[in-house]
Specification:
Layout: H1 6-16, E1 20-25, E2 30-32, H2 35-41, H3 52-58, H4 61-75, E3 81-89, E4 95-106, E5 112-121, H5 123-145, E6 149-154, E7 157-161, H6 163-168, H7 188-202, E8 210-215, E9 221-233, E10 236-245, H8 247-301, H9 306-342, E11 350-353, H10 354-364, H11 366-371, E12 375-380, E13 386-389, H12 391-407, E14 414-421, E15 425-432, H13 466-476, E16 480-486, E17 490-498, H14 514-531
The structure holds adenosine-5'-diphosphate.
Adenosine-5'-diphosphate binds next to helix 12 and helix 13.
Keywords: ATP-binding, Kinase, Nucleotide-binding, Phosphoprotein, Transferase, Two-component regulatory system
Domain Histidine kinase: 276-501
Protein name: histidine kinase
């Protein structure tokens, strides 16, 4: 080996070291042999002084105290070891983090007088450390603030839970959850699958996210989406589960599904209604047109036989009239239903004797009903009952129900109209011995555009909006309507109207004026013609 001078060798060793040696005289307070440090900081030898006060000007103000304390401990002989981290200003690259370590030497009196040591640049280390702790802090925050419930558990026992995890199980504090078994929070129906999944994770396998029924602390069931993964450290396997409560989401999806099905059904019913209504509008129109054509033909071919033409005219004009009424009824119903839907149907409430209204309108169609070979019975347990109602709408309701009763009752059958005065309500009961309504159709009978069975409606024409309008009109009075029916035996419609009068509304005066009475009579005939227009005798 090449022999070299020992002092040269020492200098070489020092120069090749990544640490910078320094010496500090505690008596003169001067730093010596700090060339490497001065070089590293980018200063020129001439710019640097040996005295401690100069060096203190380079130290970051926040670190001066710690450095002086460490020095004082040496000066006051508290310790022989010097170790301190501080920031020192470099010439061109801002502050550098330095770690200085030294050892003090004592004089013969046991006082520290001299110190030697080395410094290393730990700026990069500090930077990495800071980034790491920032990342750790950030991750911690992400987990803490995560909207998902985060749970860590070892051997099935929960060791960590975040804020959302507490809320998810309805817990107030960590103690409610930590230390408990995760499977305790799983609904018994899902425990077997969950424990299998935990075993798989513990053995290092991966599992897919899964919908699991879970239990809150109060026993409430919740539906959750769970994603789990395992983390192994020091022979222990920790499982992390991210759990989301999807109960509300599921309920909404289910509701939306039902809503969609309902919308599709409504759309189907509407389409069906339009096709029915087109048919219902076309049939009377065709009849009217054919009647006109026939009349025209008879007129052109009657060879001036006035009698022939008059007989035909009477017959076809009646047919045209009835079919015009049919069109009117349908259109009136559609208009009123739309008005009711948009809240624009005006209700004209006055105090009326409801018994009189029901009796009069029933009797006004008595001839018509009896001409169809059907018995009509009107009965009441009270002669007068004043309630607040819209007389016109009540007549419409009764006519509608009576026209249905006639439509679906064969000759020799019976239709009965009963008025009953109860404590809180007036009941109007319209029953018939007609074909009845199948029990499975009873629920939908008041729904718009529903008709029970085409076979049953053979005697009549209808669009299936009459009863929905009746129901809406009854409800506009604050009343309710119910149906009871036995298929093949008959049907009973019961209207219950609230037994109350309105103090602010006066009884309409019954005019004795002859022209007003006649006008009233004509109005009623017109109304009956419309409501009964879809019945053919
Ligand atoms: P439509 O115009 O078809 O008569 P409604 O809404 O008045 O419409 O009645 C709906 C359905 O209810 C009818 O198609 C019929 O099948 C059934 N219905 C109504 N009233 C009676 C009744 N008194 N007897 C038997 N079925 C009835």
């Amino acid at each position: 080996m090449l022999k070299i001078d020992e002092s040269i060798r020492n200098s070489l060793i020092v120069a090749s070291m990544s640490e910078w040696i320094w010496e500090y005289d505690l008596l003169t307070k001067e730093l010596d042999k700090a060339e490497a440090l001065i070089n590293f900081l980018g200063y020129d030898k001439n710019e640097v002084e040996k005295g401690v006060n100069f060096w203190l000007t380079l130290i970051h103000t926040d670190d001066i105290k710690a450095l002086l304390n460490a020095l004082n401990d040496i000066v006051s002989n508290k310790t022989n070891y010097f170790a301190v981290t501080y920031r020192i200003k470099s010439k061109h690259a801002g502050y550098k983090y330095i770690r200085s370590t030294g050892k003090a030497f004592k004089n013969e009196y046991g006082n520290n007088i001299y110190m030697a040591g080395y410094s290393i640049d730990i700026s990069e280390q500090v930077k990495i450390q800071r980034e790491l702790s920032e990342t750790t802090e950030r991750n911690k925050k992400i987990i803490e603030l995560s909207p998902l419930g985060v749970y860590a558990y070892e051997k099935g026992v929960i060791t960590y839970v975040n804020e959302s995890g507490l809320k998810l199980f309805g817990a107030k504090c960590e103690d409610d959850i930590i230390g408990k078994c995760i499977l305790d929070f799983v609904d018994p129906c899902c425990r077997k699958t969950s424990s299998k999944r935990i075993k798989l994770l513990e053995n290092g396998y991966k599992v897919n996210s899964k919908e699991i029924n879970m239990l809150k602390l109060n026993g409430d069931k919740i539906i959750c989406d769970a994603y789990s993964t395992s983390v192994s450290h020091e022979n222990e396997t920790e499982i992390l589960s991210y759990i989301k409560d999807i109960t509300e989401q599921k309920r909404m999806t289910e509701e939306n599904k039902k809503l969609l099905e309902y919308t599709i059904e409504c759309d189907r019913v509407k389409t069906e209604f339009f096709s029915n209504i087109s048919h219902d509008l076309r049939t009377p129109l065709n009849i009217i047109l054919s009647s006109i054509q026939l009349l025209n033909y008879i007129y052109n071919n009657s060879d001036n036989n006035y009698n022939d033409f008059t007989t035909a005219f009477e017959k076809y004009i009646n047919i045209m009239k009835q079919n015009s009424y049919r069109l009117l009824k349908l259109i009136n119903n559609i208009i009123d239903i739309s008005k009711l839907d948009s809240g624009f149907l005006h209700m004209n409430f006055s105090n009326h004797n409801i018994v009189e209204i029901v009796e009069n309108i029933t009797l006004s169609v008595a001839d018509y009903i009896e001409n169809n070979g059907i018995n009509l019975i009107f009965d009441t347990d009270t002669e007068e009952k004043i309630i607040a109602c819209d007389a016109d709408k009540i007549e419409r309701i009764i006519l509608n129900l009576l026209s249905n009763a006639v439509k679906y009752t064969k000759s020799d059958g019976t239709i009965k109209v009963d008025v009953k005065n109860e404590e809180n309500a007036v009941l109007i009961i319209i029953s018939d011995t007609g074909c009845g309504i199948p029990s499975n159709k009873l629920e939908s009978i008041f729904e718009r555009f529903r008709q029970v069975d085409e076979e049953l409606t053979s005697k009549s024409e209808g669009s299936g909006i009459g009863l929905s309008l009746v129901k809406a009109l009854v409800e506009a009075h604050g009343g309710i309507i119910k149906v009871c029916s036995t298929y093949g035996v008959g049907s009973t419609f019961t209207i219950s109207l609230p037994n109350k009068t309105s103090e602010n509304i006066e009884m309409p005066s019954t005019s004795s004026n002859a022209s007003a009475t006649e006008e009233n009579f004509n109005r009623k005939v017109h109304k009956i013609s419309i409501e009964f227009s879809d019945i053919y005798s």
